[in-house]
Write a structure and sequence with these properties.
With 128 residues, this protein is mostly beta strands. The protein is built from 1 helix and 7 strands; from the N terminus they run E-E-E-H-E-E-E-E. The chain starts with 17 loop residues before the first strand and ends in a 5-residue tail after the last strand.
Amino acid sequence: MVAIGCQKPYGSGEGVNLQFKKETKEDWTWITCEQADPSIPLSPKDLESVVPPEIEMGEKVVISGRMPIWLVVSLAMAYHGKAKAVALYQPGVGSTIAWTHSQECGAGSINLTKRDSSFGWVPRKGKK
């Protein structure tokens, strides 16, 4: 069993062998999480020390990066109650909204695509 639950978002984010990058484009905030040293495996035992980057109340968040699903889910849950919506980035597909508190963001809809590792992205046209 993996306990799902990292800390509440605060500051610029931190965690054992993790690095976070945050960038806001238009009305979405991209949170990218990567291993600081990919040769060291991530461990669910370190989950309670993970602190996602802070966001403002009501922001829409896209979570991106190469990480285990237990970490992705924990990060998404950490933003519940603070974010308007959370989308998960899927390479080749775009960002799929995982949960939402807003009618403007339908759960399951694909809304954004990421172009490269420098956070260049454009809204997807015609896919909802």
